[in-house]
């Protein structure tokens, strides 16, 4: 495995490798319908491809970029069939638009089993939009997922997966505002996980390590200023960028075994790991 930059060591120290499961991945997703935000490119597109490849019955891709969405659906249709995928243009910060994506999914496929809140941005220079997209979009998607899938409401239970990043496990000094949004997604996922017995909806978080994507490639241009850009470049210097397919495939592997409120991490094209957070008393340092 490629040697980690010191900035990643803390997260690496927290992980515990998952034992391979004997359940066939196609059985996990067979008959299931999913809604994926931010699925038109990058990690989102790789998640879409991996889920369909491993037996997902149908998928709605909700994305703000119509051109990317149209192209993604075209490619996915060629690979998996027209009846398997649908695109809905949607701004995740707009509750009405995202609600319409949920309703359209139910009208078209008659059910909804999995919600993947993946839409996000990494641009501290436009921090208000970043906060609305990353935290707001994830929150709206989670609340709508509970509304439509909870056994106490309109549904039969399901799964909500909130996608953050390694920066939700450790601070990135070059991107302090993005760090805040990623920690928020992790905290939300852990807190909502505690409602599984009441709702029948399992919520967990997924934090990929550094991954090949336009978001990472252009990140140095999107800091608060050049001082933050220099710090970010030093933090990621020499780090390994995993292939986005590792993220999608890793998520498929854990969707059934992940516990409510758990947080997962995948890096270096490896197996997914569960994060084990220390107890509060273990974090207190007495003088």
Automatic annotation (TrEMBL):
User: One Pfam family name from the record?
Assistant: adh_short
Per UniProt, which keywords does this protein have?
A: Oxidoreductase
Instruction: Output the Gene Ontology terms for molecular function.
Output: oxidoreductase activity
Q: Does the record carry Oxidoreductase as a key word?
A: yes
Q: Which domain of life is it from?
A: Eukaryota
Q: Entry's Gene3D superfamilies? A: NAD(P)-binding Rossmann-like Domain
TM annotation in the entry = none
PANTHER family recorded for this chain?
15-HYDROXYPROSTAGLANDIN DEHYDROGENASE [NAD(+)] (PTHR44229), ALCOHOL DEHYDROGENASE-RELATED (PTHR44229:SF8)
Q: Which family does it belong to?
A: Belongs to the short-chain dehydrogenases/reductases (SDR) family.
Name recorded for this polypeptide: Uncharacterized protein
Q: Which organism is it from?
A: Cryptolaemus montrouzieri
> What is the phylogenetic placement of the source species in the record?
Eukaryota, Metazoa, Ecdysozoa, Arthropoda, Hexapoda
């Amino acid at each position: 495995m490629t040697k980690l930059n010191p900035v990643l060591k803390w997260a690496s120290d927290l992980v515990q490798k998952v034992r391979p499961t004997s359940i066939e991945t196609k059985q996990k997703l067979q008959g299931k319908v999913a809604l994926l935000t931010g699925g038109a490119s990058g990690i989102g597109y790789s998640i879409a491809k991996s889920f369909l490849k491993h037996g997902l019955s149908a998928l709605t891709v909700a994305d703000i970029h119509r051109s990317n969405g149209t192209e993604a659906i075209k490619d996915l249709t060629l690979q998996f069939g027209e009846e398997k995928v649908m695109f809905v243009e949607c701004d995740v910060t707009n509750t009405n638009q995202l609600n319409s994506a949920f309703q359209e999914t139910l009208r078209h496929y008659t059910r909804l089993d999995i919600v993947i809140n993946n839409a996000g941005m990494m641009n501290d220079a436009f921090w208000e939009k970043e906060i609305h997209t990353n935290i707001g979009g994830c929150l709206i998607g989670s609340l709508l997922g509970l509304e439509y899938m909870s056994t106490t409401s309109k549904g039969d239970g399901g799964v909500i997966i909130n996608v953050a990043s390694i920066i939700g496990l450790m601070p990135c000094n070059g991107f302090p505002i993005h760090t805040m949004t990623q920690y928020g997604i992790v905290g939300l996922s852990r807190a909502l996980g505690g409602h599984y017995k009441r709702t029948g909806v399992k919520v967990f978080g997924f934090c990929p390590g550094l991954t090949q994507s336009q978001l990472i490639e252009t990140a140095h241009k999107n800091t608060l200023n050049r001082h933050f850009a220099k710090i970010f470049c030093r933090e990621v210097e020499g780090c390994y960028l995993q292939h986005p397919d590792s993220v999608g495939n890793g998520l498929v592997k854990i969707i059934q075994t992940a516990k409510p409120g758990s947080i997962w991490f995948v890096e270096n094209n490896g197996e997914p790991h569960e994060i084990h957070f220390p107890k509060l008393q273990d974090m207190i340092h007495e003088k």
